[in-house]
Amino acid sequence: MATVECKTVNKIFPGGVQALHDLSFRANDGEFLVLVGPSGCGKSTALRLIAGLEAVTSGTVQIGDECVNDRPPQRRDIAMVFQNYALYPHKTVRKNLDFPLRMMKMGKDERRERIARAAKLLGLEDKPDRKPKELSGGQRQRVAMGRAIVRDPAVFLMDEPLSNLDAKLRVEIRAEIAELQRRIGITTIYVTHDQVEAMTLGDRVAVLRDGRLQQIAPAQQLYEHPVNTFVASFIGSPRMNIFQTKLIRSEKGQLAIRFGSLRLPVPDGLLDACKSLEKQGTEEILAGLRPEAFVAPGSVEEKWRLQTVLRAAEELGHEEILYLDSPETMHTDEGQTPEEDASDMEGHTESTMVARFPAGRKMRLGEAIMLGVDVSKLYIFRMDGSALS
């Protein structure tokens, strides 16, 4: 096992396209680290640089205590699992597992022992003579993982290995990967665009955007303490509602923010930072409420109840996702106006806010409904998107 560290890594492709900007992070020995972000953010490029499949433009990639910038992939003691299974279709499960060991010129007895151990770990011991076409998608991915496991590398690199599987199978294999990594304890760097996958798998999660590291932390910390509006929006499903508003003083002199007809008090932990902004003459801010911050009106004081209109609903069995008119201008991370940017749900612009409730509420589309706001779940950001702390 080994640590993996990227130090101020830059990658510029021919033509001047810069995929990574001063990327720095460290995967600790035995850690499961997930790189997550939207398509084109540079996460797969980072993985390929660690693997040696691409050359670093500047900066250092270190595995263990040694810089590996000039080492070819076969000398980095890593094993990679790709999105496509990369299996030999004409070889059986046993021969697919055996192939990388033959390339290492390993003895027959040790090869047999490693193959048997990997097959048992992955539940493939009863399928040694099957070819890939005779296996399910999940079984093929297990064989692909087995090809990495038999090599007993210092580091696993996984590039969206579950994206070709259906939703149910992805959940099953995801749990298997997490359990397998805990059992064998090999340092693993896993790339995905799926934030649910990232949060459920990683000991820590690194969020990338446009080739820059935004935040690296355990999943719950990313969710509860995002450093900017991008992380706040990207981590959590449905996404956080972020709107543009102002700091104001209530009649009693309490610092608050405007949310339609409501005046939401600034949480105690953010008072000093907001007072500092106020002293600087800064009134405009961005505020965030996650979908679960909206609650039944009877559970909060009357002054924190808001009337809005239901525009759409998604019934998910155990819960409902409600799309509602927002009393304030919703913010998009790119700074676009609501008319220029559509939300994740087709047909709903960024003037729509999202709430999550347990199933069972009987409501009609277009109906005026009353919601409560849990003011303890309020987030506040500067206009540049950075979080107050």
Provide structural commentary.
With 389 residues, this protein is α+β, with helices and mostly antiparallel strands. It folds into 2 domains: 4-234, Rossmann fold (3-Layer(aba) Sandwich); 241-381, OB fold (Dihydrolipoamide Acetyltransferase, E2P) (Beta Barrel), CATH 2.40.50.140. The protein is 24% helix and 31% strand. It has 9 helices and 20 strands. It has helices spanning 43-51, 93-103, 108-121, 137-149, 167-184, 195-201, 219-224, 229-234, 271-279; strands at residues 4-12, 18-27, 32-36, 58-63, 66-67, 78-81, 155-159, 187-192, 204-209, 212-217, 241-249, 255-259, 262-265, 284-289, 294-295, 305-315, 319-325, 352-358, 368-373, 378-381. A 6-stranded mixed beta sheet has the order 6-7-8-3-9-10, sandwiched between helices. Strands 13-12-11-14-20 form a 5-stranded antiparallel beta sheet. The protein has a 5-stranded antiparallel beta sheet with strand order 15-19-16-17-18, with no helix packed on it. α2 runs parallel beside α4. The longest helix has 18 residues, at 167-184. It starts with a strand and ends in an 8-residue tail after the last strand. The model is unreliable at 335-349 (pLDDT under 50).
Strand order of the largest sheet: 6-7-8-3-9-10
Low-confidence stretches: 335-349
Q: State the end-to-end distance.
A: 37 Å
Q: Which radius of gyration do the C-alpha atoms yield? A: 25 Å
Tally of separate helices? 9
The strand count comes to 20
CATH topology of the largest domain: Rossmann fold
Annotated CATH homologous superfamily of the largest domain: P-loop containing nucleotide triphosphate hydrolases
Order of helices and strands: EEEHEEEHHHEHEHEEHHEEEHEEEEEEE
Secondary-structure content class: alpha+beta
Question: What percentage of amino acids are in beta strands?
Answer: 25-35%
Number of individual domains = 2
What is the overall silhouette?
elongated
**Roughly how much helix do the residues carry, as a percent range?**
10-25%
Q: In CATH terms, what is the architecture of the largest domain?
A: 3-Layer(aba) Sandwich
Largest sheet: 6 strands, mixed
Average predicted confidence as pLDDT: 90
Report the CATH C-level class of the largest domain. Answer: Alpha Beta
